[in-house]
């Protein structure tokens, strides 16, 4: 890439233009394209929403924000959107199913068979004019109510969860008494050991403990903990004991060596569908908590947007970006 994530987040419009020019000359495969697959649907323009990058690294919610922006763009243009995670790879690709439908419903009624027989088709991708002029789904949602509200509106208008995901949420919400909980979210593993440039700096476990104690003393509420890191879970469980609650299906990553990002390490659950559904269910449950303490990540942004300003109290660690 010609510029880093730090520069892009500090100067989003200029960064977008530089990236577009780079893609225009060096990576034209990432640009929006017009094509045709047949003679059907002559009265419609189909917009295939696909991941920009197909390296299998991006997490589910990082992928989601871009797909939502493309879906919204297509609708505003009067196109018929169809999300394709079957013919285009993500880390949930299995070579057989449209992995988008593991987690979300399609944004239109058109079928895959129809899409790939249609005459007028666009493949989603970068255009010279950004499809995200409001800088939605970025870290400013934690500081700007207007940006959070606009992000939430776009999310609600363009996204429906799959029945499988909603079933997991419903099964866990009652037993957790989620509406009474302090939702706590903290990343470890690759975020902490690799310190990826341009990603959000994570708080230490001790910093998180202090803030959780503050909330627990103030509200005397149970803690719903979401973390992938087994060492962090053990540490917080030892500190807070039985007031820590987790989903019944939770698992943790232990003995992570920190040689590569999680998606390229042999530490994740092998069933990609279940892995993604479980993660998404936990992030939805975080949005249903009464209080929230968390670090900045793609995941916490999702829960924060989904909550729509309804936390009774909240604290989000804003520690800058890794250089």
Give your account of this protein's structure.
The chain is α/β, with parallel strands linked by helices and 323 residues long. The chain has 12 helices and 9 strands. The chain has helices at 5-10, 12-26, 60-77, 100-103, 112-115, 145-158, 163-176, 189-193, 205-219, 230-240, 272-287, 298-307; strands spanning 33-35, 46-49, 80-83, 121-123, 182-185, 223-226, 244-245, 291-295, 313-317. The strands form 2 sheets. It has a 5-stranded parallel sheet, with helices on both faces. Strand 8, helix 12 (298-307) and strand 9 form a beta-alpha-beta unit. Helix 3 (60-77) packs across helix 6, helix 7 crosses helix 11 and helix 11 packs across helix 12 (298-307). The longest helix has 18 residues, at 60-77. The radius of gyration is 20 Å and the shape is globular. The two termini are 15 Å apart. The mean pLDDT is 91.
Give a quick set of tags describing it.
about 325 residues, five-stranded parallel sheet, alpha/beta, 12 helices, four-stranded mixed sheet
């Amino acid at each position: 890439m010609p510029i880093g994530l730090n520069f892009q987040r500090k100067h989003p419009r200029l960064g977008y233009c530089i990236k577009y020019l780079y893609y225009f000359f060096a990576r034209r495969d990432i640009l929006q394209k017009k094509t045709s697959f047949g003679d059907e649907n002559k009265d419609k323009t189909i917009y295939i929403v696909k991941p920009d990058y197909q390296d299998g690294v991006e997490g589910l919610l990082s992928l989601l924000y871009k797909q939502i922006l493309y879906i919204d763009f297509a609708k505003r243009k009067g196109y018929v959107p169809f999300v394709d995670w079957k013919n285009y790879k993500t880390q949930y690709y299995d070579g057989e199913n449209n992995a988008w439908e593991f987690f979300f419903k399609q944004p239109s009624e058109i079928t895959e068979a129809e899409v790939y027989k249609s005459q007028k088709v666009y493949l989603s991708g970068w255009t010279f004019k950004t499809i995200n002029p409001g800088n939605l789904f970025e870290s400013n949602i934690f500081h700007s109510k207007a940006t959070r509200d606009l992000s939430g509106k776009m999310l609600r208008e363009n996204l429906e969860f799959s029945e499988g995901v909603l079933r997991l949420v419903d099964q866990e919400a009652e037993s957790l008494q989620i509406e009474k909980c302090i939702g706590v979210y903290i990343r470890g593993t690759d975020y902490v050991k690799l310190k990826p440039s341009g990603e959000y700096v994570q708080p230490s476990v001790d910093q998180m403990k202090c803030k959780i104690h503050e909330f627990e003393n103030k509200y005397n509420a149970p803690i719903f903990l979401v973390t992938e890191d087994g060492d962090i879970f053990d540490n917080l469980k030892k500190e807070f004991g039985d007031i820590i609650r987790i989903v019944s299906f939770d698992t943790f990553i232990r003995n992570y060596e920190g040689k590569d990002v999680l998606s390229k390490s042999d530490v994740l659950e092998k069933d990609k569908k279940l892995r993604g559904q479980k993660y998404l269910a936990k992030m939805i449950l975080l949005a249903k908590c009464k209080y929230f303490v968390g670090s900045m990540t793609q995941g916490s942004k999702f829960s924060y947007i989904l909550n729509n300003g309804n936390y009774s109290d909240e604290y989000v660690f804003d520690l800058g970006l890794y250089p």
